[in-house]
Specification:
Elements lengths: L1 E3 L1 E5 L9 E5 L6 E3 L1 E6 L3 E6 L1 E3 L10 E3 L1 E2 L4 H7 L12 E5 L10 H4 L3
Antiparallel strand pairs: 1-4, 2-3, 3-10, 4-9, 5-6, 7-8
């Protein structure tokens, strides 16, 4: 499971000029993204999120999205794996936003979280 407060997708357009969109759960709940992971001797734990087809409301922006789980499906996913994925039926909030990739990287003092 990959917990997230939001995710971004870029709509159609030319490279460098695409509109970014922010997707979040109603009520500022976490989004639970299905993922897979494995240990790697060189890099430690490595993971990847699972994606799926975009729902109709999102299709004009992007053709896929992270595979989201409702909070009551998390336990079953952790016990059973990705083959139990169902369509995520909750509405997502969507808003155009500035590209998060254009923000300045955190300075050294901001990177030390632990």
């Amino acid at each position: 499971m990959i917990p997230a407060s939001l995710f971004y997708e870029w709509g159609p357009g030319t490279a460098g000029k695409k509109q970014a969109y922010e997707f979040s759960a109603p009520g500022d709940d976490y989004l639970w993204i299905a993922g897979v992971w494995e240990p790697n001797p060189d890099f430690g734990p490595c993971y990847s999120m699972i994606t799926t087809d975009a729902p109709p409301v999102m299709a004009p922006i992007h053709d896929r999205r992270p595979a989201l789980l409702a909070s009551d499906e998390v336990d079953a996913y952790l016990r059973s794996g990705p083959w139990i994925l169902h369509p995520y039926l909750q509405e997502l909030h969507v808003a155009p936003c500035a590209s998060p990739l254009k923000a300045k990287p955190a300075g050294p003092q901001q990177q030390e979280l632990f």
